[in-house]
Design goal:
single chain; alpha+beta; 5-stranded antiparallel beta sheet; 19% strand
């Protein structure tokens, strides 16, 4: 009785261990995937927002700034000291129409201001300049000794057309004659609301916001016009924007911030996504995977219960078959049946495994799944003995040693497997592939239709060459040679001709298949 109890618990323990072993890889992969998928989502999130910030800053800010710079270059190249004096006098000057046209047609400008070296000023649209002193304007003092286009910091003015105090930014450039003597200055007040309209159609990923701020923290461009100069970003954002572009997390505002800086003007473009939106993006796939794992575990538990019922039924039937009576104890009976058939089962299993292994080694290459060299020799010998015409094609992966040395042998194995798999998909079931050795693969084409065979080889070569690999710098191609069997040829003869064509293809620059048409 004690022996039966021991056998029962031994069998139960074996079943528990069996089920644990079955589920362990699934749990291991599930836990790893659950953690990795969040990391991958966060990496994707950062890459997408960095790319968006760069592209939007380029299209919505850099492009208008380039247009403004071009206008300054055109105007500065055409203005002479006399033109400026006539315009300010005022007298008839081509500048009257030019300045008016620029302000009216270029939506980024509110006003134009032209001044000579003595501080005499003319503004378009015209307005009362009785109390206006050019040298008191902060931007003018900063730009006075500059030789390039200068963007001012934000400042307030009361002399605009609606006579209301307004915060503006002025862009200006000094004018020089042929002897590089400064004879004046041209400036435009920017209409930042009009510049911000470019952002109206911009859709920021993950419910984010895109805005452009000055180094003082003032918002100068935004999708929301009322934010201009009315709101500021945290000072810490400006202080942390030190590289050309980058990103950081701000715990105070609970925001993920991506930025790109400009040198002239001294502005910073920000894309801001709140923590909740980031978490939603980062955990979406993770939550879906969690549900999949949970459902899989439930299905696994149900399967265990069904399996136990099924095993008990099998045990009863086996016991009846062996002993002629129904078993009273399924577990102990399983032990008895096990010991009675163990020897014969082990012998059959061992013989079956040896037979399968011998068959696999002789007929199928374990890495690529295509025929072996031994199988190739058998097929060629049969064709030659039967005087069956055929074409023999051999390929060799280009720079395969360099691929192994640069990316590792695991990548080299993937390349070899992909090339073999692609060849099988194109050639089979009509023609068979074999691994000749190393990175050399072979195809036998029974028949004499050279053009069709060559077209298949070209399709194979082009498909492999066009593949985009996960390794960005990895380029894969192969060279090949294809020769026809001639009556009286042995295997070595046809192999040599195909091999000579292969090396000719290599010498010609690789990634080509050479053949001998009939």
């Amino acid at each position: 009785m004690e022996a039966l109890v021991k056998n029962k618990f031994k069998t139960q323990g074996m079943m528990v261990v069996f089920f644990l072993i079955m589920i362990f890889p699934f749990l291991l992969v599930s836990i790893w995937s659950y953690q990795y998928i969040r990391h991958d989502a966060e990496t994707t999130f950062n890459n997408n927002l960095m790319r968006f910030t760069h592209n939007t800053a380029l299209e919505s800010v850099s492009r208008p700034l380039e247009e403004i710079g071009l206008i300054f270059e055109i105007v500065a190249s055409r203005i002479t000291p006399k033109d400026l004096d006539d315009y300010i006098a005022p007298q008839v000057s081509f500048l009257n129409a030019t300045v008016a046209s620029m302000v009216n047609s270029f939506k980024f400008f509110d006003n134009a201001l032209l001044a000579d070296a003595n501080g005499n000023v003319k503004v378009y649209p015209e307005m009362d300049l009785t109390d206006f002193i050019l040298h008191e304007r902060e931007w003018y003092k900063d730009a006075l000794y500059k030789t390039d286009i200068e963007y001012s910091t934000a400042y307030q003015t009361q002399w605009n057309s609606d006579n209301k105090t307004k915060t503006i930014i002025t862009v200006s450039m000094n004018l020089y004659d042929d002897d590089l003597h400064k004879f004046g200055n041209i400036a435009f007040d920017l209409n930042l609301e009009s510049m911000s309209t470019i952002l109206q159609d911009v859709v920021v990923p993950n419910n984010g916001r895109f805005l452009v701020v000055s180094r003082e923290g003032d918002i100068v461009m935004s999708q929301v016009a009322r934010d201009l100069f009315n709101k500021k970003v945290p000072t810490s954002w400006i202080e942390r924007a030190i590289e050309q572009q980058g990103n950081f997390y701000d715990p105070q505002t609970e925001s993920f911030v991506f930025y790109r800086i400009y040198n002239n003007p001294d502005w910073v473009a920000f894309t801001v996504v709140d923590k909740a939106s980031h978490a939603m993006f980062a955990t979406k796939a993770q939550n879906m995977l969690g549900w999949v794992i949970l459902v899989s575990l439930v299905i696994y538990a149900i399967a265990i219960c069904l399996f136990r019922i099924y095993i008990r039924e099998i045990i009863n039937r086996l016991y009846i078959s062996v002993n002629g009576i129904a078993c009273e104890d399924g577990q102990s009976s399983l032990e008895r049946i096990y010991y009675s058939i163990k020897n014969s089962r082990d012998e059959l299993k061992h013989s079956h495994e040896e037979l399968n292994e011998v068959k696999r080694i002789s007929c199928e290459d374990p890495l690529t799944g295509i025929g072996t060299r031994r199988k190739l020799d058998e097929e060629m010998e049969t064709l030659i003995n039967n005087n069956t015409p055929f074409y023999f094609a051999i390929i060799d992966l280009d720079n395969f040693k360099s691929i192994n040395d640069t990316f590792g042998h695991s990548v080299g194995d993937r390349v070899l497997k992909y090339t073999s798999k692609t060849g099988k998909a194109i050639m089979e079931p009509d023609y068979k592939l074999y691994r000749f050795g190393g990175e050399e693969l072979v195809v036998i084409f029974p028949g004499v239709d050279y053009d069709s065979y060559y077209e298949l080889m070209e399709t194979w070569r082009d498909t492999v060459h066009q593949r985009n690999w996960r390794e960005m710098e990895l380029n894969v191609s192969f060279s090949g040679g294809m020769a026809a069997w001639k009556e009286g040829d042995g295997m070595s003869d046809i192999l040599k001709r195909a091999d000579d064509l292969l090396y000719a293809a290599k010498r010609s620059g690789k990634n080509v298949v050479m053949g001998t048409p009939p």
